[in-house]
Design a protein that fits this description.
Structural class: alpha+beta
Length: 1472
């Protein structure tokens, strides 16, 4: 149970007090009425005695009476009516409410923190480590749990209003005060009249009420004197006569009203009556009459539930889901549900509230006189009277029973022997109607016991109760026996020193007898309240809770509610708190409070129970509690709490059925609408439905792009339908960062801000986004419907705030006024007045299906420049009822208007130490764009743009640029992740034909009619094709007429495309950059994105190898200078058709082979003259051989070193000019396999990358290695141009293309297709720092290319061996230094072929003369050495046996390296 202000002993003693009646004359009543008090009310604050009283028991032992309180009430002869009593109790409970605004009492029980009442205490549970200390602290603390003052009020009024019963005498009158005023003419006559009136009431038999304790009632005569009006001497004389007549102990002179009303008006006096006069009492006739009017509006159960619509009320069943199904008992009347209150009746206060203040004529001396009067009455009148009656009753009982003089000795004999067995309640007959005569010995014992109990003589009272209990049980007078058992148990508990244990079974038997046998629920309830308090004081909370729960029934909702609430507090106060049982019984108590009309108490119980169920996944229980809280709050005119409760039901994922959820939603909408009408506020409150995911909000800036029109394909740009890709976003940013420096002279401006057309939760939103005036802003919000019923949103629009600002002024512009559309949105009016500032789109209807997540795209069109803040969304919320017709008239009533704010939390800051140690978030400004002045807007269309190409295929397309804004644009540029994929042509390229239709069947190349001959040579500067400084043109400037594209103008230019070298699907990204002719500080440029997907199919595979030419004619050698040495090279080109015929390609024709280099050029094709067929069908391959020569000196004059020589060798009758667009463009834009692709932007050129491969690879490479490496490397690019014949739709099409092969090393084969990288083996982890790389040394292969050798000899030689046995043949060995440094050479002629196979084929010979030479050749020097070979017989001999060793002259530590031998040199020796 909850903690009470009184201890259990004080509570019991105050519940059973001596009763004193009052009879006043009219004049005496008039004297007290000056203070607006009756005589009993005047005495009530002083009825508790402050001093001890004494009396002697029959054994002449002194009994000390401490803190005795007497009850002084007026005589009311009208028997109490049970319904009126019940109404008084309900009123008392209703008036007593928990104080509002007081600090909450938080009790910690397990994992729960329960907000209970008005005291802050921390309780613990046994499984805490410090539970012993906590329990000790709590047991010694007086207020260790919550208080329930309404229960104490109910209990106090319940005991005071208990009707007097025949089986007990505790509530019978012991004495009667006869009060007469001193101003009476003959006071003694008035005393006589009052005495006779009291005698008539008690003994005439006309009145059954009130009850009197004994026939000889104590009459106490009180003379009331008004000091302010009466004659004090006359009063004293009358009082002297009274003492002579009634004795000094039977009368008293009470003087009051020491001052008049006027004298004490301003003086502040204590008010001891306030705490009593607010309480109603059944013993006060006047208050009893007034209590018939119910004054609590919220306790009216039968009243209409404050406007709830009938459909909503029907959804909530009258029966509680946790309601106990028990039979209704009729013994305890007064169920408040059947007693509705007429709201039109005039309401009265429960207590007397006079117009003038009370006690205005009383002073502190009067208070002392009243207190002294009651003390004199009690000590000199009442207690002696009780002592006298105890002795008389004791003597009567002893004489009648023949026992000894003392009842003490009698009880010893009675209880000294064996105990008489008692019958169970089930075996007893129903003798509740049995009545004893007033002179019966059993009743005399009970009277004596009650008298002893009233004067705190609990030991003698217990003995008498025990004796009476046995007598009543033997007579089967169960009502009397139950009463004796009840009081015996209480007496045993109150005995000081605890001589015997508390007999709890006595109480259980008494309660069971009252309830089941006697059918008297009032007495059972009284017994239950006493027993529960006693059990609680002994910390037996479980027993107390069980007892309280047993007393709940259907006959009285108020009683059941209070007892269930106390049982719940018992569960929470156990040593191991039972929190869930507490919550469950609080729910039951709240339901019974609601049925009893106690709406506020019902709401409080549900709120306390919600603390336990909240957030514990008991969704159904939580929904029921919140629903009930919402209804009760609305009934009590608390619409804010009602809306909050209903909101909680709707925003969580509910497990309710669709019908129930629809009912919840209708209730919420009705409450919400009623609250809005009552409050009359213009601002829109927050709506809970549908759930708005603010973090998923996306914002798009710009017009929606036009779709493809016929053959035109619009640029993809950015749309809201695209999913965000972080890597792709980074790629676009890198492209933009690549263009900006090209425009701004190689630097990136400090104010540069990457363009972001679509903002979401993953983009960088730290800066204010930039939007353009007269261009729409689309905000995509995500709604989620958590319910199983559809939600209909109407008049959906954005809520915004806009600050006008002119950015054209100095210092960033001037700030104007701030405008918002809140008023227009709240009233759901047309925003025409604001359309000149901001055009707001309104969606008429937006339906969200059950449990659906749906996006809504809302548009704003700014008309002015300034700063925009999107605040949220505003809409009308409606629902379609489940199972109801659509034409329901209530549907319009269920539509409410509200808003939801878009509040986005930025990213968590984690840079500084403070940010890492705290939780702080940065801003997210995606909803706060800055509206900038007008900017140009570009749209791009592609005409005849293919989706599939062969690898290396050249296709001509067209691009159309359209300026759709009212502002001219300039500085149009394009950047791409694949610059090798496209070209707009060089500045000198011929742009004819000028239309896509005219160019439909034309070749993409520039061609000339030329028969096959020696290569046509052209010298080209890379700058003409946009290549500067060796870099590939990553950013291309698109030429505009007069440099400007005006508003509404369009421009079409050709675009050449080349299929990627690798097959598969390629994603190619274009970024178009443009600026406004008028520079603005906010937005410097704009971009347009386009993504194209090209499917590349296999075409040809080209492999090329370069070899040194071993033939050097003597005549040519002498004609040329030393600068032309080593000037020829053989190039072998192997072409294979690897097409899989998927594209319908029938055959490929190799139409031309071209070269491009700064040092080499193709000279002629040396294939056999009859092999002119260059057709390759599927899986066929062919090989071509070409002679390459170095560029002539006149071609490498001043400034020409940076130029490239293009040489064309056409295999047919048509020459393709490779030095013009588009062939040369794609050559300069070509990429190498090592260049990066998706995820990074390529910025270097192929030339630059090749130059890197020809220069030192690292800082540790020395000059020697570089010289040696250059001996074997070349710089020659081969361009193979082809045509493919394709059959498509029964038509033959001719496709053309080009493939590139870059020759870098002598003897090393290169391929147009990149080889697949082999899987790298797993590298072991290294835990030590890497050793710095050693100095790079040339490889043996590189060292073997220092010297080129060539033998000159006759192919056949005739010699007469019979005449001369030795044949001497002269041979010249030509040595050519291929390096740019001096070389030391060793020639060894002693080397012989040891291979048996070689000997069998070629035979053996010998060299004559010097067989080893040591020479030194200068850079690129050619040296000829004369040798003689000696043969012994005719045959075929290989002269290629000399071994040549070489090393650089400057490297003394390096050994000579064997040079690559020439091809086999065969000579035929013929015998003559």
């Amino acid at each position: 149970m909850a903690q009470c202000v009184q201890s259990v002993q004080e509570f019991i003693q105050d519940s059973f007090v001596p009763m004193v009646a009052v009879l006043c004359s009219e004049d005496a009543e008039r004297v007290t009425r000056k203070n607006n008090l009756s005589f009993p009310e005047l005495l009530r604050p002083f009825c508790r005695l402050t001093s001890e009283g004494h009396l002697r028991d029959p054994n002449n032992q002194v009994v000390v009476v401490k803190g005795l309180r007497i009850s002084v009430t007026g005589i009311n002869t009208k028997p109490p009516q049970t319904p009126e009593l019940q109404r008084l109790l309900s009123q008392a409970v209703s008036v007593c409410q928990p104080p509002e605004g007081s600090p909450a009492n938080v009790i910690t029980a397990g994992d729960y923190d329960l907000n209970i009442s008005d005291r802050t205490v921390k309780a613990s549970v046994p499984w805490y480590s410090d539970w012993k200390e906590t329990i000790t602290q709590l047991s010694s603390y007086k207020y260790y749990t919550a208080t329930t003052p309404w229960f104490e009020t109910y209990r106090e009024n319940f005991f005071q209003s208990m009707p007097a019963s025949e089986h007990e005498f505790l509530s019978h009158y012991l004495a009667c005060m006869l009060v007469v005023s001193s101003c009476e003419a003959v006071p003694t006559e008035q005393f006589l009249k009052l005495s006779q009136e009291q005698h008539r009431i008690q003994h005439s038999g006309e009145y059954t009420f009130p009850k009197w304790f004994i026939p000889n009632t104590l009459k106490y005569y009180v003379l009331l004197h008004d000091i302010s009006e009466g004659d004090e001497q006359r009063a004293d004389s009358v009082y002297e006569g009274m003492k002579q007549r009634y004795g000094p102990q039977g009368c008293y002179l009470l003087k009051i009203n020491s001052r008049s009303d006027a004298t004490g008006a301003d003086e502040q006096m204590p008010d001891p009556w306030s705490q009593y006069l607010h309480k109603t009492s059944i013993h006060n006739p006047e208050l009893y009459e007034e209590s018939a009017v119910n004054n609590a509006v919220e306790n009216d159960v039968g009243a209409v539930e404050d406007g709830f619509d009938s459909a909503a009320r029907d959804d909530m069943s009258e029966s509680h889901p946790l309601q106990l199904d028990q039979p209704t008992e009729t013994c305890y009347p007064g169920n408040n549900r059947s007693q509705s209150v007429d709201m039109t009746r005039p309401q009265k206060q429960s207590s007397v509230t006079p117009a003038t203040p009370r006690w205005t004529c009383l002073t502190l001396n009067d208070h002392d006189r009243i207190r002294q009067f009651l003390q004199e009455f009690t000590f000199r009148g009442l207690l002696p009277h009780i002592e006298k009656n105890i002795r008389q009753l004791n003597d009567q009982l002893v004489s009648r029973k023949g026992l000894s003089r003392s009842l003490f000795s009698a009880t010893k004999k009675l209880f000294g022997g064996g105990k008489v067995p008692e019958k169970s309640i089930a075996d007893l007959k129903n003798t509740a109607g049995l009545l004893y005569p007033s002179e019966a010995p059993e009743l005399q014992i009970r009277k004596m016991a009650d008298l002893c109990f009233l004067v705190q003589h609990y030991e003698l009272a217990y003995n008498c109760y025990h004796t009476a209990k046995k007598d009543f049980l033997s007579d089967q007078a169960m009502l009397y026996a139950a009463g004796s058992l009840e009081m015996a148990a209480v007496s045993a508990f109150l005995q000081s020193g605890a001589p015997r244990p508390y007999p709890a079974h006595y109480m259980e038997t008494a309660i069971q007898t009252y309830r089941d046998v006697c059918k008297n629920m009032l007495l059972a309830e009284r017994c239950c309240l006493l027993s529960a308090e006693i059990s609680k004081s002994q910390a037996k909370y479980s027993e107390a809770a069980t007892l309280l729960i047993k007393m709940t029934s259907e006959d009285c909702d108020l009683r059941s509610a209070l007892l269930l609430e106390q049982a719940a507090h018992c569960f929470i106060n156990m040593r191991t708190p039972m929190v869930r049982k507490f919550a469950f019984h609080m729910i039951l108590a709240g339901h019974r409070f609601s049925k009893a009309g106690q709406k506020r108490h019902a709401l409080r119980c549900y709120c306390q129970a919600l603390q336990v169920y909240k957030g514990k996944c008991w969704t159904l229980a939580e929904d029921h509690i919140n629903f009930t809280i919402g209804r009760q709050s609305f009934t009590l005119r608390q619409p804010e709490n009602a809306v909050a409760a209903f909101r909680h039901i709707l925003i969580n994922d509910s497990k309710q059925s669709a019908v129930q959820q629809a009912a919840f939603l209708r209730e919420y909408l009705y409450v919400y609408k009623s609250m809005s009408q009552l409050s009359g506020e213009t601002s829109l409150p927050q709506l809970p439905l549908p759930c708005l995911h603010s973090s998923q909000t996306r914002v798009f800036f710009g017009h929606e792009r036009r779709l493809a029109e016929g053959e035109k394909q619009a640029a993809t740009h950015v749309t809201l339908d695209q999913e965000y890709d972080r890597d792709l976003s980074q790629l676009w940013r890198e492209l933009e960062e690549q263009v900006v420096p090209a425009v701004n002279r190689g630097t990136v401006p400090v104010t540069f801000q990457p363009s972001q057309c679509c903002l979401n939760s993953q983009t960088d939103n730290l800066r204010y986004p930039l939007a353009v005036v007269e261009e729409p802003i689309i905000v995509e919000v995500v709604f989620r419907n958590p319910l199983k019923v559809p939600l209909v949103l109407s008049a959906l629009s954005l809520l915004w705030k806009f600050t006008l600002k002119d950015f054209s002024g100095p210092q960033g512009g001037t700030i104007g006024e701030t405008i918002t559309n809140e008023k227009e949105a709240a009233s759901s009016k047309d925003n025409a007045a604001l359309n000149d500032i901001m055009d707001t789109q309104v969606i008429p209807e937006f339906t969200v299906s059950p449990e659906e997540t749906k996006v809504a795209r809302l548009k704003l069109l700014p008309r002015k420049t300034g700063e925009l803040h999107v605040l949220g969304v505003v809409y009308n919320l409606d629902t379609t009822d489940v199972g109801s017709s659509e034409d329901s008239p209530a549907s319009e009533l269920m539509c409410v208007r509200g808003q939801q704010n878009l509040e986005i939390q930025g990213p968590r800051l984690n840079m500084t130490k403070e940010e890492k140690t705290s939780v702080s978030y940065g801003p997210d400004r995606r909803l706060d764009p800055i509206i900038t002045p007008p900017m140009p807007l570009l749209e791009v269309f592609f005409i005849n743009f293919p989706t599939g190409l062969l690898c290396g295929e050249i296709r001509k397309a067209w691009v159309e640029f359209v300026n759709v804004s009212a502002v001219p644009l300039t500085g149009l540029r394009v950047a791409s992740t694949h610059p090798e994929f496209f070209t707009f042509g060089s500045a000198t390229s011929d742009l004819t034909p000028v239309t896509p239709t005219a160019a439909e069947h034309c070749s993409a190349y520039k061609t000339l009619a030329t028969p096959p001959s020696v290569a046509a040579v052209a010298l080209v500067s890379p700058a003409a094709f946009g290549v500067t400084g060796g870099d590939r043109p990553a950013v291309t400037e698109i030429p505009l007429s007069r440099g400007v594209l005006g508003p509404g103008e369009a421009l079409q230019i050709p675009l050449w495309l080349r299929g990627p070298d690798q097959e598969g699907v390629h994603e190619i990204n274009f970024l178009f950059y443009y600026e406004s002719t008028e520079k603005t500080a906010k937005l410097s440029h704009r971009v347009l994105r386009h993504t194209a997907f090209i499917c590349a199919s296999r075409s040809l595979s080209v492999r090329a190898t370069a070899s040194r030419s071993n033939t050097l004619q003597g005549g040519e050698r002498e004609q040329r200078g030393t600068e032309e040495k080593n000037s020829s090279m053989l190039v072998f080109v192997d072409v294979e058709n690897i097409n899989t015929s998927e594209a319908g390609v029938r055959e490929f024709h190799i139409v031309q082979v071209s070269s491009s280099s700064r040092q080499w050029k193709l000279h002629q094709c040396i294939n056999p003259a009859g092999d002119k067929d260059s057709k390759l069908a599927n899986r066929e391959r062919g090989k071509l051989c070409f002679r390459a020569t170095r560029c002539r000196t006149e071609e490498a004059t001043s400034g020409a070193i940076e130029k490239y020589t293009f040489a064309d060798l056409n295999l047919g009758n048509e020459q393709i000019v490779s030095s013009t667009t588009p062939c040369a463009d794609f050559f300069f834009r070509r990429s190498l396999p090592s260049e990066p692709r998706r995820g990074g932007v390529s910025t270097g050129s192929a030339n630059q990358m090749r130059r890197h491969s020809l220069t030192p690879h690292n800082a540790n490479e020395d000059g020697v290695t570089s010289i040696i490496r250059k001996c074997s490397e070349v710089e020659l690019d081969i361009i193979v141009l082809w045509k493919a014949y394709v059959v498509e739709d029964n038509k033959q099409l001719i496709l053309e293309g080009q493939l590139h092969v870059a020759l870098q090393t002598i003897g090393k084969e290169v391929c147009s297709l990149s080889q697949k990288e082999e899987t790298q083996e797993m590298v072991l982890l290294k835990f030590k720092p890497d050793v710095p790389p050693p100095i790079s040394k040339p490889s043996l292969e590189q060292l073997s290319h220092l010297i080129k050798t060539c033998l000159h000899y006759p192919e056949s030689y005739d010699h007469p061996f019979p005449l001369k046995s030795l044949c001497m043949v002269p041979v010249t060995l030509t040595l050519s230094n291929c390096s740019l440094a001096q070389v030391d050479i060793i020639i060894d002629l002693r080397h012989k072929t040891t291979s048996p196979e070689s000997l069998e084929v070629h035979g053996s010979f010998t060299w004559l003369g010097q067989t080893q030479y040591k020479l030194q050749l200068q850079a690129q020097e050619v040296y000829r050495l004369s040798l003689k070979a000696c043969f012994f017989q005719a045959g075929v001999y290989n002269l290629g046996t000399p071994r040549v060793f070489a090393k650089l002259a400057q490297t003394s530590a390096m050994c000579e390296t064997s040079q690559q031998s020439a091809m086999p040199a065969l000579i035929i020796i013929n015998g003559v």
